[in-house]
Amino acid sequence: MNPMKIRGVLVTVHGVGVLIRGPSGVGKSLAALNLMCRGHSLISDDLVDVILGPKGEPIGRSVEEEVRIEVRGLGVFLARTLFPEAVAPSSRIDLIVDLDIYDHSRDGGRIAPETGTFRLLGYDLVAVRVPLPTGVDPALPIELLARRFKESGTVEP
After folding, report:
1. Domains and CATH numbers, the chain
2. Three-state DSSP class for 93?
3. pLDDT tens by residue, 59-92
4. Which residues are catalytic?
5. Which residues of the chain are under the pLDDT cut of 70?
6. E-strand spans in 63-151?
């Protein structure tokens, strides 16, 4: 079976494979860089090859032999030259985080995470929308969601 290609960034956070999606410029690569600074691993930036693992679970890997990451305004770097210990060849995909631009009319006030499911190669994954005000680093919410998912299998508070 040929790999399916998905736009996004794949990282492992607290042992949870997190596929970060969202519109261009929302901060997916910046989130990955900040997560790498905190000891988590990058699998792929921008485009992820997804295949089925031995138990039918989605596994993501880089489309390139050498994982590259874009640092907006500075260029594209080999990830291992920035954080050699924070690059991994593949990861199971457990959770999807959809970064979105904060919209006061939709996102104002205290709200529970907007969750749903996303079917990937026949496998249902938890997907959560994270609205981000301009200038907010998405790494912390992603860490919290991954920790919550690891502990309880859900992202609900």
Report:
1. 4-152 (3.40.50.300)
2. coil
3. 999 999 999 998 888 999 999 999 999 999 999 9
4. 28, 46, 110
5. 1, 110-112
6. 68-71, 75-78, 90-92, 95-101, 114-120, 123-132
